[in-house]
Amino acid sequence: MMTAYNAENFKGTLLLDEPMSKHTSWRIGGSADQFYTPADVDDLAQFISQLAADENLMFLGLGSNLLVRDKGIRGTVISLVGSLSDIEVLEENCLRVGAGTSCAKLARFCHRNNLIGGEFFAGIPGLLGGALAMNAGAFGGETWLRVKSVTTINKRGQIFNRSHDDYEISYRSVKGQYQEWFVGADLQFEFGDGEAAAKRVKKLLEHRAITQPTGLPSCGSVFKNPPDDYAARLIESCGLKAYAIGGAVISEKHANFIINTGSAKASDVEALIQLVQLSVKKQHGIELQTEVKIIGDAGNESL
Q1: Is 221 a catalytic site residue?
Q2: Domain covering 87-201, topology
Q3: What is the mean pLDDT of the chain?
């Protein structure tokens, strides 16, 4: 049930019954009860503090690793798109970056300031908040290898500074404080040739465009790579390339991508995910774990 309050007390933008299909890279998903874009961290803290204690709360970036079920989200979505996107240079080679900063923007900032080690951020199609939440990576790099500390907010609107050691980090997994969400991070890089780094990134992105179905509605990689293997290889070996359920189809170019051909429902994608998991388990004895988060009426999580 939505919380009643006076919207004039807040500086951000509130939308009711907002279709999540507008905010996910798959372009599918039902509506969220409340959808709030804060003006800044203080506004975010004030807004969250007035929500009911049992309100379902979810933080959203670009929706690039998210499947929202067709019945939508009962609760409040906090969108960081266009918010909390400042980058501040601290001492030497350390940056303070807002969780609403796009990973592509962060990579460009590093290049322009002759900081290296952040090139991989150019390959992450999301915001820093999402990258922190799942230890996103690309081109051999991972987000938490660059984290010195993070700033978080809880359901009471309280702000905390947490160290790297407060979290258990592994491949595409971050375990830490319960019901706290990232609003920023201090990231460490090295000095180097930013122009040369930008050229390396350009070549990597060009290769990605050849080998992956970029430009089509997808979430990127659906499954985590199992140890010493690749999810795409396992899926392809099961003969599932181009296999479709409804409007969702496994990409012919890269088997770890599921494409919305234009008419897909979230239920089509979820059914295809389950089919892949069952097929790979039956043929190879490997249980593929999803990289994408699946949320909705069955239970909300934080991104």
Answers
A1: yes
A2: 3.30.465
A3: 92
